[in-house]
Each structure stands twice: as structure tokens, then as C-alpha cells.
Specification:
The structure holds 2 protein chains of 2 kinds. By secondary structure, chain A is mainly alpha-helical. Chain A folds into 2 domains: about 5-110 and about 120-185, no CATH class; about 190-475, no CATH class. Chain A is about 70% helix and about 0% strand. Chain B is an alpha/beta fold. A 5-stranded parallel β-sheet of chain B has the order 2-1-3-4-5. In chain B, helix 3 links the parallel strand 1 (about 55-60) and strand 2. The chains are: A mainly alpha, B alpha/beta.
């Protein structure tokens, strides 16, 4: 079920009312309803793949109990190994099997070998990369005794399948989200109101911004061989905001929906395009995934400790795996590697991870300094060029796209892109003004009628100019 | 902290009421300012403002709308085609015209292009408010549930403005004048580079045929219905494959849509012996200046083509008389 669909518009109020008026008496009822609703939500897309979530949940719940019952290191390692194997096994089979087989065949061809392993017609289950990482974080944290294992099966199943963040995150840590399932939720008016506003802003970014930009982006990337360099640059710019509107819009809807049910999820986007360098960008873009890789891959590899070579190696491995997580294709690997390359100067020069970087750009003043604006512009340009690898269908398409930009090819524009550029200006302006808030519709300081006017204006803007057609969220494919 | 969300639901309800009130106001503004000033409504007003008989009535989609200049057909004529019109809409429009007979009609010109029966056109009833004049959405809902008649009925009456903000912006401008329902378009296509012409043509063909379903049964049935309406009311039907650019023609060839619907269309045409089919698709393949874009005629193109079309129809009539 898509957040931007009519089904979800009916589903959400039904679950909300049942949750607060029917299931409010006991924790078990609340969690049971969340599990049932989440399975309906997921099964709406393809009920067969519910089995994967259920198997993952059963095994990781059991592994958690097993880890609680033993202190024997070898047994604990075996239990953790089971969880890792099952979860990464699902991911590896459904997402990477064909990719590795194809790559093996090509590598064999280059070496003069004629390999004939068969590929399979595999459907990628929606959200598999997200919920496997979430359940893995549980077993890893329990193994490292950072999180207490739960004996409440309903709470655990609800934690794994919680529908607002099931298919595209944020990837929650067990220590943050699981405790929220262990206490009966009480309705919090302010939380629900803020959640509703966040849903509205998320839908605006998805339907008004991302889906409108998608039409131009699709045309430009499908025909890049015959377009001018300027138009290709515009294509990369539009895609940068399409993917931002799409994914951060999804996260806003997820966070807002969770709030309606009394949950606080972690912030997943924090105005990433106002970052002043690449390391800051990665602290603001897809925060839940970046921190997952930081905690479970980069730090175990050694993190920022050791020789310059070791630190660079750790960054390259982390970003390469991150790229591969996004998609089983070499262009995603290249995208990850490019970000690793962007990151290297900060290792060589010694990065400044001071308080200033964690603050919003130009904190407490309206306009940045010229220096800060240039830093923001440079960082954005770097990420924008990297997105070409993310959007192009293949690695060679991405390289050709970039080569054509560099060739400074001139031709008449197929469109003036006034509307897409105006939409980008709109979202940038709103988010810049409200950059220190959790989301731009945190406008409690304004009088009630003004707030309602703003909500109505936004709703009618979406209704009048939005693209409706249940276009899927980009991150569903990962 | 409250256990139940009474206050929250109360606020949501209050907001929803305010939203509905604003929506109703916007709907009224949309109907009065946008729909009534649009090309379709302006064409309607011109058509119904006179009662004089017509030798030719042009109906169909943008190929017909931009392709036939009524003043160049050599007889009294009116261009009643509309942008994005599929055979489902044409059928309902024609039904009302022949039943109410606001004007006597001798010949109706209809398009028969590669995309005429492509499935996407049956769902593409944009401008739901305007089409409500002709289409009984509730009847459609009963007879063809898959055509979402009820949704269109609700949209037309409550949320006609939905996803049509761009038309609202256009409506603020002065309405463009129409000449018997026709408005010439500038010759822009030939000024583009060759690669751009190919790119545009491929994109247009993809829009028309990229989704497959070249012989949609609902549209074929509507086409048959149009011919039967003509036969029942003694109106001659001329079915025309409109000229397209070579670039667009080449792009069409990759889909072979005609071969998919040819047999069925031949059967329908044979069942209406008075119907004349004229294929002009390739007539201007080497004349880029005749086109405003890959598949629509320019001002010059529509002038020359209208002469050609009028003369061809008259010649065929003369041949029949002999």
C-alpha cells in the first residue's frame, strides 16, 4: 500500500480509530493491532512475501531469547551468526543473486572462460533492505548487550513490522524503538497534531515536488544522448530534488504517521542540501542508514582509528557497501565509491566535527555568509553529479551522461523547465526558512487562523498542481 | 494526557468542513472561470450559437482539431474536435448531436490514426466537468464499471479543479479566438535540429503507443457506435488517417499498431458501406514545414490539407454518382 494512495487514505483512519477506541485498553491489543495492520499494509502489495517478515521475526525473537539465556561466547556467536545468515541470506538471494551471477559470467568472459550459471526470475520484496537491517540491529545490539532482549512476542513482531517505517525506513534501532512497544501508549494531542502536519508536508514533497519533477527527469534521462549539456545538468538538478522530495517526503509521512499512534521515530533527513561538506551531508541525508553503517560496519572496521591508509580503506569499504545496499548494480557501487572519494580530503586534512557542523547552516540568521553559501553550493554540486550514477540505468549510461555534460554540447532546449525550477525554489525557500525545525510545518507560534490558512493553501496547491497516479516511492526498490 | 483522541478528531472534522467549503468555492470558480473559458466550451458555444446546416462536421482528437481548417474545406464546415478526445467521448458527443439535431449535418469527418484505439485513451477523460455535458457518468458507471464513471461523476461535480491548476493559470489570460472551432498553429517542427525532431517524435509515439493495448474493445465499440449513429441518421462518415511527419511515422512503425486493429476495423467499416476511409498519413512525409510538432499540422499544413481533404471527398462523391 502506498502512502500516496486512496487505499492508505482509508486505511489510516480505520486503524487510527480502532487503535485508540478499540485497542487502547491493553498493550497487547495495541501491539496486536499494529502487527495485523502492518501485515495488511505489506500484504496489500504481495502477501506471499509476508512470510519473509514472519520468518525474520520468529528467528530474531528466538535468537534474542537464546542470547539472554547464555553467556557462553561460542554459543552466543553461533546465535548471532544464525540471525546474520538468515537476514543477509534473504537479502543476498532476493536482491543480489542475479547481480553476482551476471558479474561472475562477465568476469569469466574477460578471462576467456565460458560460464553458464543460470539466473532466476526473482521479484525483489519491497522494503527487504530496510526491515532486515532493523532486525539485524536488534540481534547485534543484544549480542553486544547494548539492548535487553524482549520476551514480549507481540511487541517484537510489531517492532519488526511497524507499518509506517516498514518498507522504506527510517531504519530504527531496537534500543530506541522497541522500548516504545513495551509500554501502553496514551494519546498525545500535541504529538498527533504535529504528526498530521508532518504528513501534510511529506505528501507535499512527494506529490507536488517529486512526482512533478519525475516527469522531466524521466524524459531527460531516457534521451540524454540527444540533449544539450545544459539540459543534462538541469536533469541532474531535478533528479537531486526528485529523490530528496520522494525519500524525505516518505520519511516525513512515516514519522508523522508513527506520531499518530504515539511513537517517536528518528529523524531521517535534516535539510541535507544545506550541508557545508560531504561529511555533514552524510550526517543529514538518510540519517538512519548512515548511522547504521557507521555503527555496524565503519566502527567495527576500525573507524577513524589507525593509519591514513586504514582510515581511507574503512571509508571506501563503508561507502561501497552502502552503494551496493541501494541496488544490485555497478552504478550504485560507483555512486558509493564517488562519495568515498569525496570523503577522502576530510581524512587527509583532518575533519572538523565541531559543534558548528551539527548546527543548521547560518543558525539564527536568515542569510548565510558568502563562504558558507559557497561551501553549500560546492557540496550540493558534488552530490548532484553523484546522483547521475544513482539515476542512470547502467554505469556506462552514467559515464556517457557525464561525458556529454563535459563536452559542452549545445542545442535548443526541449523545455524551459520553469515549473520544475519554481517547485525547487519553493521547497528550498520553505526549508531554508524553517531549517532549524523538525519539519517546516512546525508553526505553533502562528495564530490558529494563519496556520489553517497555510495548511489549506498547501493542500490546494497539492490538489491543483500535484501529479496523481500512485507513483511508487523510489526507495521501495531498495 | 487524554486516553482518547476526541479533541484531535474534533479538530480534524472542523478542518475538513472548512476544507470542503473552500473546495466548493474553488469548484465554482473553476467551472465559471476555467471551464467556461476553455477551448472546448468556446467551441461548443460557437457550434450551438448557429442553426445553419453543415456540409462537414469534424470530430475527434487533436489531430483533427489542428488538422482541419473549416474555412478551407470548400463548403460550410465546423471543427468540433477537442484535444485528448477518444472515441468513447466522440460517441457520446455525436449521440447528443444526432439526437438533438441543433444543426443539420451532411458529412462527419472522424480520425483513424495508429493510436485511435489505444487503451490509454479510454481512461483519459480529462476535463471531466466539460464532458459531463455529453457523457452520463452514472450510466457509464453501470454499463462499464471499469471506466470509473462514479469517480468521474464525483470529480466533475465536487473536485473538477483536481490536478488542473495549470488550466486555471491559463484561464487568467484572454481566451484565444477560434474560427469555426479552429485555431491555426505555428510551423515550429522543421526549425528543430534533426536529432531533436527524432527525439520529439519518439517521445510522442511513446505517449501514444508505449503502453500497448492498440485495439481496446471499448474504443472499437464506440467507433462502431459512431458509424451506426451516422447510418441511422443518414449522415455520411469519412474516416481519415491524418498526416504525420516522417520522424513520427518512423517511430510509429516500430509499434505496428495498425496491424493489431486492422481486421476488426475493416469489419466495422464493411458493415457501414457509406463510410469512406482516406489514408493521408504519409502525404507530407517530406515536408517538415507542414507540422507544428511531430504529429500535428501547422497553419500552412492545415490549410493545404483541408483543401486536399475537401477535394478528395468531393471527387469520391462524384465517382460514386457516376
Amino acid at each position: 500500500m502506498l502512502f500516496n494512495s486512496l487505499e492508505f487514505m482509508l486505511f489510516l483512519p480505520i486503524v487510527f480509530v480502532t487503535y485508540w477506541y478499540g485497542a487502547h485498553r491493553s498493550l497487547r491489543l495495541q501491539n496486536g493491532l499494529i502487527v495485523a495492520a502492518s501485515y495488511v499494509f505489506y500484504g496489500w502489495w504481495d502477501w506471499r512475501f509476508l512470510s519473509l517478515i514472519i520468518i525474520s521475526s520468529v528467528i530474531d525473537f528466538g535468537v534474542g531469547l537464546g542470547l539472554a539465556a547464555t553467556d557462553e561466547p561460542a554459543r552466543r556467536k553461533a546465535l548471532l551468526g544464525t540471525s546474520v545468515m538468515v537476514n543477509l541470506g534473504f537479502l543476498g538471494f532476493f536482491k543480489y543473486y542475479n547481480f553476482f551471477v551476471d558479474s561472475l559470467v562477465r568476469a569469466g568472459e574477460n578471462l576467456g572462460l565460458n560460464l553458464h550459471p543460470s539466473t532466476l526470475q526473482i521479484v525483489l520484496p519491497v522494503g527487504i533492505s530496510f526491515y532486515t537491517f532493523q532486525t539485524l540491529s536488534y540481534t547485534i545490539d543484544v549480542y553486544h548487550r547494548k539492548c535487553a532482549p524482549t520476551r514480549d512476542v507481540f511487541a517484537f513482531f510489531a517492532f519488526v513490522s511497524f507499518f509506517p517505517q516498514l518498507v522504506a525506513g527510517p531504519i530504527e534501532r531496537a534500543k530506541d524503538l522497541l522500548p516504545q512497544f513495551l509500554h501502553r501508549r496514551r494519546f498525545d494531542l500535541e504529538l498527533a497534531k504535529d504528526g498530521t502536519r508532518q504528513i501534510l508536508w511529506g505528501l507535499t514533497k512527494k506529490i507536488l515536488i517529486a512526482d512533478n519533477l519525475a516527469a522531466s527527469v524521466d524524459t531527460i534521462f531516457a534521451n540524454y544522448e540527444s540533449l544539450s549539456s545544459l539540459e543534462l545538468l538541469i536533469g541532474a538538478l531535478l533528479f537531486s530534488f526528485q529523490i530528496y522530495g520522494d525519500f524525505s517526503g516518505y520519511s516525513d509521512i512515516a514519522l508523522g504517521t508513527a506520531r499518530l499512534f504515539g511513537f517517536e521515530l528518528r529523524k531521517n533527513f535534516d535539510t541535507p542540501y544545506f550541508s557545508r561538506n560531504i561529511s555533514e551531508f552524510w550526517r543529514r541525508w538518510h540519517i538512519s542508514l548512515s548511522s547504521w553503517f557507521r555503527d555496524y560496519l565503519w566502527i567495527p572496521l576500525g573507524g577513524n582509528v589507525g593509519s591514513t591508509f586504514t582510515r581511507i580503506k574503512n571509508i571506501v569499504i563503508t561507502f561501497t557497501v552502502s552503494g551496493l545496499w541501494h541496488g544490485a548494480s555497478w552504478n550504485f557501487v560507483a555512486w558509493g565509491l564517488l562519495h568515498a572519494v569525496y570523503y577522502v580530503p576530510s581524512i587527509l586534512l583532518g575533519s572538523s566535527k565541531g559543534r558548528r557542523e551539527r548546527q543548521a547552516s547560518a543558525e539564527s540568521i536568515l542569510v548565510s555568509t558568502v563562504r558558507e553559501l559557497m561551501q553549500i553550493g560546492t557540496t550540493f554540486l558534488m552530490t548532484m553529479l553523484a546522483w547521475i550514477f544513482f539515476r542512470a540505468p547502467t554505469l556506462s549510461d552514467a559515464v556517457e551522461y557525464l561525458t556529454r555534460i563535459a563536452s559542452l554540447h549545445r542545442d535548443t532546449m526541449t523545455s524551459y523547465y520553469r515549473e520544475p525550477l519554481a517547485l525547487i525554489a519553493f521547497v528550498v525557500t520553505v526549508e531554508w526558512i524553517q531549517r532549524s525545525k523538525d519539519h517546516p510545518l512546525q508553526i505553533d507560534h502562528l495564530p490558529n487562523p494563519v496556520r489553517w490558512l497555510i495548511y489549506l493553501a498547501l493542500i490546494f496547491l497539492v490538489l491543483l498542481l500535484g501529479r496523481f497516479g500512485n507513483r511508487e516511492f523510489i526507495y521501495f526498490q531498495f | 494526557m487524554a486516553m482518547k483522541p476526541h479533541a484531535y478528531l474534533g479538530r480534524c472534522l472542523a478542518f475538513f468542513v472548512v476544507f470542503l467549503l473552500c473546495s466548493t468555492m474553488l469548484q465554482q470558480i473553476y467551472v465559471r472561470l476555467v471551464v467556461s473559458r476553455g477551448t472546448n466550451a468556446t467551441t461548443d458555444a460557437q457550434f450551438y450559437s448557429e442553426a445553419s446546416p453543415l456540409t462537414f462536421l469534424v470530430m475527434g482528437d487533436s489531430h483533427a482539431k489542428d488538422g482541419v481548417d473549416p474555412s478551407e474545406l470548400g463548403a460550410s464546415a465546423f471543427n468540433f474536435a477537442s484535444y485528448g478526445e477518444g472515441y468513447f467521448q466522440t460517441y457520446w458527443k455525436l449521440k447528443r448531436i444526432v439526437e438533438e439535431q441543433p444543426r443539420q449535418i451532411e458529412t462527419i469527418i472522424l480520425p483513424l490514426d495508429d493510436h485511435s484505439f489505444a487503451s490509454y485513451r479510454r481512461y483519459r477523460i480529462a476535463d471531466t466537468v466539460y464532458w459531463q455535458r455529453y457523457i452520463d457518468y452514472l450510466a457509464v458507471s453501470r454499463d462499464h464499471p471499469e471506466l470509473e464513471g462514479m469517480t468521474k461523476f464525483l470529480t466533475a461535480n465536487l473536485f473538477g479543479y483536481f490536478a488542473d491548476g495549470r488550466s486555471m493559470a491559463k484561464a487568467l489570460r484572454k481566451p484565444e479566438p477560434l474560427r469555426s472551432g479552429f485555431k491555426p498553429r505555428p510551423e515550429a517542427f522543421w526549425k528543430l535540429s534533426e536529432s531533436r525532431r527524432n527525439l520529439d517524435a519518439t517521445a510522442r509515439a511513446r505517449i501514444h503507443l508505449g503502453r500497448g493495448g492498440f485495439a481496446d474493445p471499448v474504443l472499437l465499440e464506440a467507433f462502431r457506435g459512431c458509424l451506426e449513429l451516422g447510418k441511422a441518421h443518414g449522415i455520411r462518415i469519412v474516416v481519415v488517417a491524418f498526416p504525420v511527419s516522417r520522424e513520427y511515422g518512423d517511430a510509429l512503425a516500430t509499434y505496428s499498431a495498425r496491424s493489431v486493429y486492422r481486421d476488426e476495423v475493416d469489419r466495422i467499416l464493411r458493415s457501414s458501406p457509406l463510410t469512406l476511409f482516406l489514408d493521408f498519413q504519409q502525404v507530407y512525409f517530406d515536408r517538415g514545414e507542414m507540422f507544428a510538432d511531430p504529429d500535428h499540422l501547422s497553419a500552412q499544413g492545415s490549410t493545404e490539407f483541408s483543401h486536399l481533404l475537401g477535394n478528395t471527398i468531393r471527387q469520391s462523391e462524384a465517382a460514386n454518382v457516376k
